[in-house]
Design brief:
With 236 residues, this protein is mostly helical. It has twelve helices and no strands. Helix 6 crosses helix 9. The longest helix has 19 residues.
Length: 236
């Protein structure tokens, strides 16, 4: 007999903003998510509702616990983007209605089958550092930032580069910024990152002023190293 799967507990499920959505149907949550992309609680509520199903399926794929958590987060990131175009009323070949649960199960199976996971020692992500919805919205916020500004924020917050080192790298790439100018740009980046995060995501996950504590917005394991550097050709 196989051992029971221990489902991680996600504190956001007990937050009042999420609790207030418990009686909403799947269709309601999907519709609200699609109509209000500036609001984060609807996707977070869907995550809380179906994370046990997704985690159980992935855990039974017999990967290491570290890879399971990483694939779990990657799967929810995939759901985050694909959910925007989901039509639960679309006709199916067998004439049966699509349910959100079946759709999520199918997406999870697809992610499991197509996963090309890095070795355990190369994975920085942990569920304890950043729940998948926070990861999705931080990544979305970073994607909306100018590339150089995004790179500076990630260099300092994720890789702990000094402002002098960031300045030297940027100058080698043709960006003439002194360490003092990098410091100013970083503050601009933190403010922009805060602005791009949905207000309710900051309320649910952070509970602090992101500008005053930028590390609360961008924990070390929330960004894949390749994401920040691929466009500049820098290996880390």
């Amino acid at each position: 007999m196989s051992e029971p799967v221990l489902i991680p507990q996600f504190p956001e499920s007990r937050h009042p903003l999420i609790q207030s959505l418990l009686r909403h149907s799947d269709q309601d949550l999907v519709t609200l998510y699609q109509r209000h992309p500036e609001v984060g609680r609807y996707f977070t509520a869907i995550f809380c509702r179906y994370s046990p199903v997704v985690y159980t399926l992935i855990r039974h794929s017999a990967r290491s616990p570290v890879q399971v958590d990483y694939l779990f987060a990657l799967t929810w990131r995939h759901i985050f983007y694909e959910l925007r175009g989901l039509n639960l009323y679309a006709p199916t070949p067998n004439g049966q209605a699509i349910t959100l649960q079946n759709w999520i199960i199918n997406v999870t199976a697809l992610c499991i089958n197509q996963a090309d996971l890095p070795p355990v020692e190369a994975i920085q992500y942990t569920l304890q550092a950043a729940s998948p919805p926070l990861w999705c919205y931080v990544e979305q916020a970073l994607d909306r930032m100018p590339s150089t500004l995004r790179l500076m924020v990630v260099m300092v917050q994720v890789f702990h580069w000094s402002e002098t080192r960031v300045s030297a790298y940027l100058q080698a790439e043709g960006e003439r910024l002194s360490p003092a100018e990098v410091r100013v740009k970083l503050q601009e980046g933190y403010r922009l990152l805060e602005t791009e995060l949905p207000d309710d995501i900051r309320t649910i996950y952070l509970g602090t002023d992101p500008v005053a504590a930028p590390e609360a917005v961008l924990p070390d394991s929330i960004v894949e190293p390749e994401m920040a550097f691929m466009e500049f050709g820098l290996s880390v």
